[in-house]
Amino acid sequence: MKVEKGERKGKRSMKTTILWRSALVVSALLVVPFAILGEAAPMGEAGPPVATPPLKVATPPLKVTTPALKVTFRPFSDFLDAQGTQSKFFPPVPDYVGWTNNIDINKFTLFALVDYAGLANDYLGGTLGTRVHGFVIQRELADGRAQILVGIFTTNALGFAQSGAALRSNGFDFLDTPTVFGHKAQDVASGKKAAVGQSAFLVTFTIAAPGARLPDLVHVVTSPPPPEFAPVDLTFIATVPGKCEHGTRAVLHVDQAGPPDVPVREIVKIVNEPCH
To answer: Which of 18, 73, 168, 221 has the highest count of CB atoms within 10 angstroms of its CB?
Structure first.
């Protein structure tokens, strides 16, 4: 089928709009936690505190007017090394946080996974070239606990989506339910073409004490959040170009924000050409 120049331009324009909207939202949100945390003193080896170039995330200079807080950067490896502790949903690929367009399991129509921590890429032997950068900021609290802010910026992340109706009818057998966009890591390992994109993930939670081991996010971002990590807040944005189950071109877009049990935004959608 011949694609006219105007049609191609329209598809590129829609993808570009989504990417820039995502970058602007993340840029604005980064200002708030840094303003609250104030000046951070280095502690150990830390990941770069900005996104990789494709996301173009930057923060303006801040004027700190509050008293200095006990704030430190922790090594980003403290976070990455704690991910992938279980493999219940797509074994043997380790679990990572997934997203739906409705918190009610009886109403959501799409479920999406985007490999923000590079776990699916590790399973595939690094063949997707997923790159994960980020930072971990720790703030000591008066009650002896610590508040943690993690920023995760990922490129070439595997992304796919499944139908909510199909998952419910299959008893939430995620591994054996077909995808409606992209392919699972197991399918990619068998020769299917991967859909890869980029994501930005900001999440705050508390831990028992400064310097304590960081948790796997699948144990933090639940509804309601476990009391030992509360309060939990998050922002996750991802854009993954690829194809639907019928081979039509599409873009998977995820845009979620707010506490896990009462999200401010809860968007999982496939744009360009309909897949369902």
So the answer is: 221
